[in-house]
Amino acid sequence: MAPASAQHSNILIVGAGIFGTSTAYHLSQERSQKQKITVIDVFPTPPSPAASTDINKILRADYTNELYMRLALEAIDQWADWDFLKPFYHNSGRVTLNSKGSDLYDLTRKNFRKFLGRDPCVDLALSDVVGNEDSSEPTAAPNTDVKKWRQMFRGTSLKGIESAYWNPIGGWCDADLATAAMMKEAQKNGVNYVASEVQELVLGLNGVQGAKVADGRYLTADKVVLATGAWTSSLMSPLEDILDIPAEQRFELQATAAGVCVLHYKLDTQEMEDLRNMPVFLYGLNGEVLPPPDRNRLLKYTNANSFSNHYRTSSGQLISAPPRQSQYEVPDKLKRETMEIIGDKAMPRYSRKRPEYWRLCWDAVTPTQDHLITHHPDPRLKNLYFAIGGSFHSYKFLPNIGSYVCRVLQGLSNGAEKDHAWTWKTGTDGKIGRGAHEKVVPQRELKDLEDKAEAKAKL
Length: 459
Hints:
Blueprint: E1 7-14, H1 18-29, E2 37-41, E3 57-59, H2 66-81, E4 89-90, E5 94-99, H3 104-116, E6 122-124, H4 126-130, H5 146-152, E7 161-167, E8 171-173, H6 175-188, E9 192-195, E10 198-204, E11 207-213, E12 218-226, H7 232-242, E13 256-266, H8 269-274, E14 280-283, E15 287-290, E16 298-308, E17 310-312, E18 318-320, H9 332-343, E19 357-365, E20 372-375, E21 384-388, H10 401-409, H11 416-422, H12 452-458
Parallel strand pairs: 1-2, 1-12, 2-9, 5-14, 12-21
Antiparallel strand pairs: 3-8, 4-8, 5-7, 6-7, 10-11, 11-12, 13-16, 13-19, 14-15, 15-16, 17-18, 20-21
């Protein structure tokens, strides 16, 4: 148990990524309740290891899942309207190349017609995207900037690509700046931010009492929210050991820590001009290329073929979490794969440049790629809540997801659809299947992507 001298709050949020930041902000708006809110993360905002801390993230409403399309349309309106987020939103739209045999294209457009009463997407001929920019060939989309796209995307391989479309809704955002801006608003409203590592969760007589911090302090709270993404199993496992929770009821079956490889190129002045007003470029199921922000001139490629990192704890439990080493240490084998899958194929002229840096980006992926926004079902942990499960598609929800977490904390329903999607799942074996963002489901382990020499060096 925590000592009597512990610093107490009404609500303690562990993790300051998109879920933790948005929850803190929305709680801070509820002035009538006058609650003391504390957020703790290893790093100051925006916390560098979090999936949400990145140079940019995609803001899209293109979903085969009806719930997340509605949620995304709501969020994109807020990105455009809220004064402290507007400077970080870039309504660039996106060009999507569809992989052969994929049904995502048709399902997405069907949903747009259902919820908007129209389809905002415009069919493109493949020559509209990667054809000769000086070609006089007529375009399938006369009201789009096809000539510019042909110049931007020239040389892109169309192997395995079936069709293409343009959607003007959404674009991308300066993710790290937006996260920091929202947390700043929360702090203006009285939220306390602690930059330190949580060493362990502490049990009390009525559930989770709080957290023991690396500097020796104890932070206690009436309610504890884990917004810890890919690191959640590593925090939960010791607690589950103490309570002797059986394997089939442990957190690991709710979400798997998954990583993707990200590649960045630094562009010169002329290259930046060549990509002026570039839309987000989705390269089939392989990944995407995001426009370079003016502030850092970094063109970002993401390899969507994800991986996990499972290991045995001292008690013998198999859990997943990011490795302890730097996220900027990327195996050579994975670098080569990323080049083969997307770097040498999408806008390939930049592959002649030396990468500025590589990164492994980690998130928590749930079996259906739904969020997990709920309380723990064990009555001994009745005041422990989860706000995780970004599944590599959730940064766009920064403006609105916290409002739904607040309702759960208040014991209120978010409606039958959301309650069902975001609850703790029972009777699952943890296997991941079709859902809201299937292409990033991990099917392999990080260790299998390391060369023998790299694996040996870790021993």
